[in-house]
Each structure stands twice: as C-alpha cells, then as structure tokens.
Design a protein that fits this description.
Radius of gyration: 29 Å
Helix content: 40-55%
Shape: elongated
Largest sheet: none
Distance between the termini: 83 Å
C-alpha cells in the first residue's frame, strides 16, 4: 500500500471483479488507479473531460450518451475567387504554389471557349 502496509488483495479483487458485473460501470473502481485518483478530485483538470458524456465514469449512471453529428464545410475563398489572391497576399502569408495555381485558374477562366 502507499503507506507501506501490506494487504492481501487477491480475494478482495476477485470480489470486486464479480461485483463489477452486477453493479453499474460508474461504481467500479480499481484501488490505486490513476483515473480513480482523478475522479476523487473534482478540481483536477482532467475530471471534467473524463466524466463528460462518459457512462463509465462520473457520479451517476448514464443510459444515453449524446453524439452531435454537425458538420460544416465550405470552399476556400481563393478557390471561389482566385483574382483576390494578390490582395489577400498583402495581409496574410500564402504559399507560392497556391498563388501560382490561382494565377493559372484565372488564365483558364479567362481563356476563350474552344481555345
């Protein structure tokens, strides 16, 4: 044990394993476990991320965990309007290969049809 004392843990651990199958998972603890130490201190920086939407840790049992499936995507402004690349380049760093591709896209866009 941390204080230097000795304890027979085999029988106790076998009981814990059997009990873990009968009780909700949030009540099962491993003696001396790192996560258990986090769970005892609500001020620990890891506590909130550990218990948020987690059915195995925390003060109460959870039957549901909410999953947010939001996804957003948009096209790059440089792809949509390659002519702005030179103006934008005055304020932010744009890789040279991106600038080159924007200039090529402008040439392709301005090329007459059939040429």
């Amino acid at each position: 044990m941390p204080d230097g004392s000795k304890r027979r843990l085999l029988a106790e651990e076998l009981k814990n394993i059997i009990r873990s199958e009968q009780e909700p998972p949030h009540k099962f603890r491993i003696p001396g476990g790192i996560l258990e130490r986090v769970l005892t201190d609500r001020n620990d920086l890891a506590y909130a991320p550990l218990v948020w939407q987690n059915s195995f840790y925390g003060p109460r049992a959870r039957s549901k965990v909410h999953v947010f499936s939001g996804f957003k995507a948009s096209n790059s402004s440089l792809f949509l309007a390659p002519k702005i690349v030179d103006d934008v380049g005055k304020y932010v760093k744009i890789p040279k290969d991106v600038i080159t591709e924007c200039h090529l896209a402008m040439k392709r866009k301005n090329r007459p049809k059939g040429a």
